[in-house]
C-alpha cells in the first residue's frame, strides 16, 4: 500500500492512497514535496478488504456524527448505514442508503471528545456503517486503493463543528450564490406544458397579489423530450414569451436532462455523434440508455470537450433571456438498456415453456430494470488525459460535471453575472457553482422533517442554497400539510413548490379560500424577510459559515434537536410538523427567545419565552419562529418579485436585553460584484440601558444603499414594545 | 331509496339501507318491528353517487376524529383519505389508504362539540375523506344501496369517547381473551425452518435466562407450502417435539394460509375439490390464484360447510398439542392469476414486434400483478342461502370468516379452553374470537409510532389484544431501534419479535453483549408486570373499556398526544421514538406522575414529575413509563414462562397522595371460566393521611389466589419511599 501524508491548511492533513482520480473537489493546491510517507491515519484503524480499504473509528457514547450532505435519516448519522453512490430513487423511505448526491464529508465528536472531521475524495461508492452494526464503531469501506482522505483535527485545542465546516470550505471553495431573486418564491409543476398554462399561472400570481419570482418548465416543454429543443407548437416565439414574463418579474427555468435522443436529423444528436462526445459501450459504440425520450446516448461529461459543447448548447436559451436551469436525471438515471429489456423478453420466453419458473423472478427482474447497478459498469468515459474509465469508477461525478458544463456556459456567455442553477445529482465541489434541490420527496409529514435535516446536512457540506419541493413532489397533499410546509418554506433558502404529474395541484388557488389566504400571507412573510435572509446568507458565504445550522452548532443543548434550526444568526425556525397539531414542543437553548407567530408579514403575536422545554401554541394560520435574545431581524414590505422596486424603508424587529447588532447587506443581486466588495452594509446596533435603547446605524461599502428610514420595534425581557424610527442621511 | 331506522341499545340508532348482506359483525338482535321509515340520518347529508351513497358530515375546528382500527397515519384521522378494502400491502408508507383490515367504526367530536360515532356494517370498499380535500368536511362514500349504519349519539347529554366505544362493544360483542401465556414474550422468524432451529432457539432462551412463551413457525414448516401439512424431514415426529417444547414452557404457533395447492394426491386439495368448497370462477370452475405454493384454490369461507371443514382440518394440529395459530395471507393475498400472467406474456410479444411501446407499460403491468383489484371481481362465493356473490361484494369478510372457522375448530375440539389465534386480515366482529397483528411493518423508527397509534385505534375497535412486529418485520434493524422497540413491546399486549427472510436476525443474542443485556432485562420487566397487565386487561374485557387508550380518553389534554398511551389505568407508556435520543418530550396531564425508568425489573430510578410539558431523560438501557398519581401497579418476580410456578409474592408499587386502589385479578389463564366468574381478585386500597399509609386488602371470588404476601413500595409527592409488607391470611 502506498500511503503518504501532507499538512495543508491549519487543521487539515491530506492522506493519499495510491494515485487518486482527480475530481476537482478541492481548490487548495497541494505541493507534491509536502508529502511524507506514513503507515496510519489519525485515529483510524485500517484494514484491506475486497480490493479496497476499510477504516474503523471508535465512537464514544457521547459522540454525535454529522455530515454526508444529502442522505435520508436522522441528522445525527449514528445508527444507520449509508452508501454514497448517486442514484435516482424516487421513494425516500427511511431505510434508503443512498440518494442523488455523494458528499463524503463527516464530522464527529462531542463537547466531551475533541471533534474531528474527514472528507474522502473518491468519486465512486463509499459505504459507511455508522454505529449500525455496532453502536460504538463507525466503519467506512472504500473499494479502492486510490483515493484521498482529508482529515480535519487539531491538537492542543478543541475544534468546533463550525470550525471544521469552515476548514472543509477553505479546502473545497466558497459556496455558490444565486441571484437575489432566488430568494423569492418559485412555482413549478410537472408540467405547465405550454405557453398558455405558464402565462395563466404567472398572471394569476399577480392578480391574486401573491409574490413569485420564477416558474419552472418541466420536461413537456421540449419537442419529444429532445434536450435543447422547445416544442414550437406549445411555445411559439419563446423569446418574446420569456421577455414578456421577465418584464412582469418572472424568470422561466427550463429543465435540462442529459440523455440525447437517438434520432436522425436531430442536431444535438448528430453533432454529439459526429464529434464522439457520447459515452461508449465496451465495444466502442455509443452506449444506449432509455430515459424519457426513449433510447438516448449519454454525453460524456468527463471529457472537457463535451462540457464545452454542452455549455455552448445552453447559449440558445441564454440568448432568449433564460437565466436559470434545473438539471435533472443526471445521476445518471437509466430506465433500462436494450440488453436488459432483452433479458426480460428471454425470461418470459423461458417461462412460457416452463411453468415451474417462479413468476417472482420476472417481478424481481423488472424491479431492477431502473438504474441497475450493472449498467454503470457497461459504459465508459474519456478522461482529460485521454484514458478510458468506466462510469462505475467515477460514477458520482457525472451530474457534477454536467452542472459544471452548464455553469461554464453561463460564465462564458454572461461574464460577471450570477446565474440560477439547480442540479439533482451532486458531488463535493459542486457547491461552488450550483445548488441542488433534494429530488422526489413525497407529500408526507415525515418528509418535512427530512427537508429540515437535509437543509442542515447540506449546509455543512457547503450547499447553503438548497431546499426540498414544498408540499412534497409525489402523491397528494392535504391543505393542512401544504400550509405547514409553506411555513417551513419561509425558512428554506430555495422556496420552490413543485409536484408530480397526476397529483393534486399545489398552486395556492388550488385549495379552499381559507387555505389560500394563509398561503398567500405565508409567501408574503417570506418576501418581507428577504432583507434579513439575504444579509445573513451573504455573510455566511463570506465567512464560510453555514447559513442553516443545527442548534448544537451554536448552543449547548441538553439533547439533540433535529426539528428546529438556525436560519442565519438571529432566527430559529421551529415549524409545526404533525397533522392536526395546534402547536409543538421546542427546546429553547441558553438564552431567552422572542416567540413570533406571524398571521401576516405585518401582524405578529409575540411573547418572550425563557430557555427550556416548552409546548408552544401555533394555530394553522400562523408561521412560528423565534428571534434570539439580543439580536435583530430586518424586514421590508413584501414586493411582487425581487427587484420590483428599490427598498427604502426597513423594519427592524429586535429582542434586546443588553446589546444587539446586525449587519444589513445589499448589492445589485445580479452580478458577482460582491466578490470584489461591491456591496453596501448598514451596521445596526442597539444597546439597552435603564429601560432605554440607544440605536446607532453606520453605513459602509462602495455601493450606497437606498434605505432612507428604519422603523424599529424593540422588545425587551417582558415583551414590552418600543417603537421608533431613524432617518438615514442622504448619501 | 329504502331507508329505515330502529333504536337499539341506549345510544344506538340503526339506519338500514335496502337489504344489507348479513355480516355477523353485530351481536344485538334487531326486532324487525322496531323499524320506522325515515329520510335522513342524524347530522349527515346524503347524496347518491355512482350507484352508491355519499355521506357528508361537517367538522368543527376543534373536532377530533378517531377510529378506523388498522390504518396508517395519525391517530386523529383528520387530514387523510382512507379506503377500507382489505389488502396485503407490505410497504406501509404514510400515504397508504388501506391495509389488511376493515374497521368502519368512527368516533368524532371534542369537548366543545357533542361526540358521536358510527359503524357502517358493509363488507366491501368504503372510502373516507376525513378533512383531506376540505379540512372541515368528512365524506364517506359507500358504493352500494344496501348497508347498515349504526349511529351512536345521545341527546340531552354529552357522550364521552369511552362511552361510545362501550356502546360499540355492546353492539358487536366482548373482546377475545388469549390464554394468559399470550402476555408472555413471543419469538418468531421467517423462518425457523426445522425442528433443530426451533429447539436451539428455545433452549437458548432458557440458557440465557430470557423468558419466552411461544415460538412461531413460518411457512417453511410445511411440505411445499401445502396448508395443514408438516414437512416430515424437517419436523420428524412433530407431536413428540411439540410436547417436549411445551414441557419446557414453549407453545408452538404454526402459520396457516388459505390457498390450497393444486396438486393431485394432496388430501386437502382433493377433498375441497370433491366437496366443492373452493371459490369459483365465473364459469363455475374453481378459481386459480398463485400464492406461496404456486397455483392454489381459495377455500370459500363464506360457505358454512367450508368453515366446518377448515375448522376440522385444524384438529390434526390440536391433537399434536398445538394451542395457537396465526392466519396469514387472508385478505386474501393473490400474487397473480394465470390470466394475468398471460397478459404479461402477450404484452412482451407485442413489444418485441413494436419497439415504440413504452417499456413502462410492462413495469406498470408487473407492479399491478400482486393483489390486482380486478382479481376480486373474478371469483365467487356460495352464501349460506346458496346464492352466489363475487368476492368484491363481500371482500372484507374473507379473512374474518377464515378466522371464525379456525376459532370454531378450537371451540369444538377444546371446549371451555382458551386458544391463541392471530389473523392478519379482519373485519368488525372478529375481535370477539381472535386477535390481529399489524402485518408487514418495517425496521423504521417511524413504525414505532405507527405501532402505538394502531394499538390505540385497534383497541377502540375492540381488538384489545394486538401488536406489531417488534423491531419491524422488513429490512434490517439497528441494536438501538431493536432495544427501543422492545421497550415499547413491554406495553404492547401482543409482544412478538418477528422478522422477514433475509433480514438481520432479531433474537436478543444476535446483537452485541450490551444490547443483549438490555433486551433480556426488558423482557424480564415485561414478565414482572404481568400481574398488573393481566389484571387490567381482564378488567377492560369485563367492562368493555379499551385496555390501551389515548390520553385524550382519560384526561383533558392541552393538545393531541399520539406518542404516549394509557396501558390499563395506572400506567402511561411513553417510549423513546427517535434515534440517538437520550430522552423525549412528554405531556403529563391533569395530575402528578411517578416517572419510572427501569434498568431492570427490580431496579428502577423514580421521580415525581408534576403535570405539564417536560423533556424526560431516558438512556438506552432504561425502559421509561409513568405511574399515575393515586394508583397502584402490581408486579412479581419474572418467570421463564407464564405458569412456570405459582405467584405467591406480589410487589405493589404505588404513587399515593390521597387514595389509591387496584383490583388484582387472577384465574387459571387457560379456560373460559372467567366468563362465569371463576376468578379471584384482591382489592388493594391505600389511603395516605398525615404521612402515613393505611393499607387494606380484600380477597374476593370463588377461586382463591395463591398470593401469600404483598410487598409495598409507596411513593408520596416528594418521591419519598415507604416500604412495608402485608401477609395474606391462608385461605
Secondary structure blueprint with pairings:
The structure is a homodimer of 731-residue chains.
Chain A: E1 3-8, E2 12-17, E3 36-37, E4 45-49, E5 52-58, E6 64-67, E7 80-84, E8 101-102, E9 105-109, E10 116-121, E11 126-130, E12 137-142, E13 147-152, H1 161-172, E14 185-187, H2 195-208, E15 214-217, H3 238-247, E16 251-256, E17 260-261, H4 267-275, E18 280-281, E19 289-291, E20 294-297, H5 304-313, H6 315-319, E21 324-327, H7 338-353, H8 360-367, E22 379-382, E23 388-390, H9 391-394, H10 398-413, E24 420-423, E25 426-427, E26 435-437, H11 446-460, E27 466-467, H12 479-489, E28 495-497, H13 513-528, H14 530-543, E29 548-549, H15 551-554, E30 565-567, E31 571-573, E32 583-588, E33 593-600, E34 603-609, E35 612-617, E36 623-628, E37 631-635, E38 649-655, E39 659-666, E40 680-689, E41 692-700, E42 709-715, E43 721-727
Parallel strand pairs in A: 8-25, 14-15, 14-28, 15-16, 16-21, 21-24, 24-26, 26-27, 38-42
Antiparallel strand pairs in A: 1-2, 1-3, 2-13, 4-5, 5-12, 6-9, 7-11, 9-10, 10-13, 11-12, 17-20, 18-22, 19-20, 22-23, 29-30, 30-31, 31-36, 32-35, 33-34, 33-36, 37-38, 39-40, 40-41, 42-43
Helix pairs in contact in A: 5-10, 12-13
Amino acid at each position: 500500500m502506498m500511503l503518504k501524508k501532507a499538512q495543508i491548511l491549519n487543521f487539515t492533513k491530506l492522506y493519499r492512497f495510491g494515485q487518486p482520480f482527480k475530481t476537482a473537489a478541492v481548490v487548495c493546491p497541494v505541493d507534491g514535496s509536502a508529502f511524507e510517507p506514513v503507515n496510519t491515519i489519525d485515529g483510524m484503524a485500517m484494514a484491506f478488504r475486497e480490493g479496497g480499504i476499510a477504516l474503523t473509528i471508535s465512537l464514544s457514547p457521547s459522540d454525535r456524527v454529522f455530515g454526508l450532505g444529502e442522505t435520508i435519516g436522522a441528522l445525527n448519522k449514528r445508527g444507520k448505514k449509508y452508501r454514497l453512490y448517486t442514484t435516482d430513487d424516487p421513494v425516500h423511505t427511511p431505510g434508503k442508503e443512498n440518494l442523488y448526491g455523494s458528499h463524503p464529508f463527516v464530522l464527529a465528536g462531542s463537547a466531551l471528545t475533541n471533534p474531528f472531521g474527514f472528507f474522502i475524495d473518491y468519486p465512486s461508492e463509499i459505504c459507511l456503517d455508522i454505529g449500525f452494526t455496532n453502536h460504538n464503531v463507525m466503519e467506512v469501506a472504500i473499494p479502492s486503493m486510490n483515493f484521498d482522505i482529508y482529515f480535519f483535527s487539531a491538537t492542543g485545542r478543541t475544534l468546533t463543528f463550525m470550525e471544521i465546516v469552515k476548514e472543509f470550505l477553505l479546502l473545497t471553495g466558497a459556496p455558490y450564490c444565486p441571484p437575489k431573486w432566488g430568494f423569492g418564491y418559485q412555482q413549478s409543476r410537472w408540467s405547465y406544458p405550454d405557453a398558455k398554462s405558464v402565462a395563466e399561472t404567472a398572471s394569476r400570481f399577480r392578480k391574486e397579489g401573491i409574490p413569485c419570482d420564477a416558474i419552472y418548465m418541466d420536461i413537456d416543454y421540449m419537442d419529444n423530450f429532445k434536450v435543447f429543443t422547445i416544442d414550437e407548437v406549445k411555445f411559439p416565439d419563446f423569446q418574446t414569451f420569456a421577455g414578456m414574463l421577465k418584464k412582469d418579474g418572472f424568470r422561466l427555468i427550463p429543465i435540462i436532462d442529459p440523455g440525447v435522443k437517438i434520432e436522425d436529423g436531430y442536431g444535438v444528436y448528430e453533432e454529439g455523434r459526429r464529434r464522439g462526445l457520447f459515452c461508449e459501450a465496451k465495444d466502442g459504440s455509443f452506449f444506449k440508455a432509455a430515459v424519457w425520450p426513449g433510447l438516448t446516448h449519454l454525453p460524456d461529461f468527463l471529457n472537457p470537450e463535451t462540457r464545452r459543447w454542452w455549455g455552448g448548447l445552453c447559449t440558445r436559451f441564454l440568448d432568449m433571456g433564460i437565466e436559470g436551469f434545473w438539471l435533472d436525471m443526471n445521476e445518471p438515471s437509466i430506465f433500462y438498456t436494450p440488453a436488459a429489456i432483452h433479458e426480460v423478453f428471454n425470461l418470459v420466453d423461458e417461462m412460457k415453456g416452463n411453468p415451474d419458473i417462479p413468476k417472482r423472478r420476472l417481478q424481481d427482474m423488472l424491479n431492477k430494470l431502473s438504474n441497475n447497478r450493472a449498467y454503470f459498469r457497461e459504459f465508459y468515459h474519456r478522461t482529460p488525459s485521454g484514458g478510458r474509465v468506466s462510469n462505475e469508477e467515477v460514477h458520482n461525478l457525472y451530474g457534477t460535471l454536467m452542472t459544471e458544463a452548464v455553469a461554464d456556459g453561463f460564465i462564458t456567455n454572461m461574464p460577471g453575472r450570477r446565474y440560477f442553477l439547480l442540479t439533482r445529482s451532486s458531488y463535493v465541489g459542486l457547491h461552488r457553482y450550483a445548488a441542488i434541490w433534494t429530488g422526489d420527496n413525497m407529500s408526507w409529514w415525515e418528509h418535512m422533517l427530512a427537508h429540515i435535516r437535509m437543509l442542515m446536512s447540506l449546509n455543512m457540506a457547503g450547499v447553503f442554497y438548497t431546499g426540498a419541493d414544498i408540499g412534497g413532489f409525489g402523491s397528494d397533499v392535504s391543505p393542512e400539510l401544504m400550509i405547514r410546509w409553506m411555513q417551513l418554506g419561509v425558512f428554506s433558502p430555495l422556496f420552490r413548490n413543485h409536484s408530480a404529474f397526476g397529483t393534486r395541484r399545489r398552486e395556492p388557488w388550488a385549495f379552499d379560500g381559507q387555505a389560500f389566504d394563509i398561503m398567500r400571507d405565508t409567501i408574503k412573510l417570506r418576501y418581507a424577510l428577504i432583507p434579513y435572509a439575504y444579509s445573513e446568507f451573504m455573510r455566511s458565504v463570506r465567512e464560510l459559515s453555514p447559513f442553516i445550522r443545527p442548534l448544537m452548532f451554536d448552543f449547548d443543548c441538553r439533547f439533540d434537536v433535529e426539528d428546529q434550526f438556525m436560519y442565519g444568526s438571529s432566527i430559529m425556525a421551529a415549524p409545526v410538523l404533525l397533522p392536526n397539531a395546534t402547536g409543538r414542543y421546542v427546546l429553547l437553548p441558553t438564552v431567552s427567545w422572542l416567540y413570533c407567530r406571524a398571521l401576516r408579514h405585518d401582524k405578529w403575536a409575540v411573547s418572550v419565552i425563557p430557555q427550556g422545554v416548552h409546548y408552544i401554541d401555533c394555530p394553522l394560520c400562523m408561521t412560528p419562529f423565534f428571534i434570539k435574545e439580543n439580536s435583530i431581524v430586518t424586514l421590508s414590505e413584501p414586493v411582487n418579485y425581487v427587484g420590483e422596486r428599490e427598498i427604502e424603508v426597513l423594519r427592524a424587529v429586535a429582542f434586546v436585553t443588553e446589546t444587539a447588532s446586525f449587519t444589513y447587506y445589499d448589492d445589485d443581486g445580479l452580478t458577482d460584484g460582491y466578490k470584489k466588495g461591491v456591496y453596501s452594509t448598514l451596521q445596526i446596533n442597539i444597546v439597552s440601558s435603564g429601560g432605554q435603547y440607544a440605536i446607532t446605524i453606520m453605513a459602509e461599502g462602495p455601493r450606497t444603499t437606498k434605505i432612507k428610514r428604519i422603523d424599529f420595534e424593540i422588545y425587551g425581557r417582558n415583551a414590552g414594545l418600543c417603537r421608533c424610527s431613524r432617518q438615514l442621511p442622504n448619501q
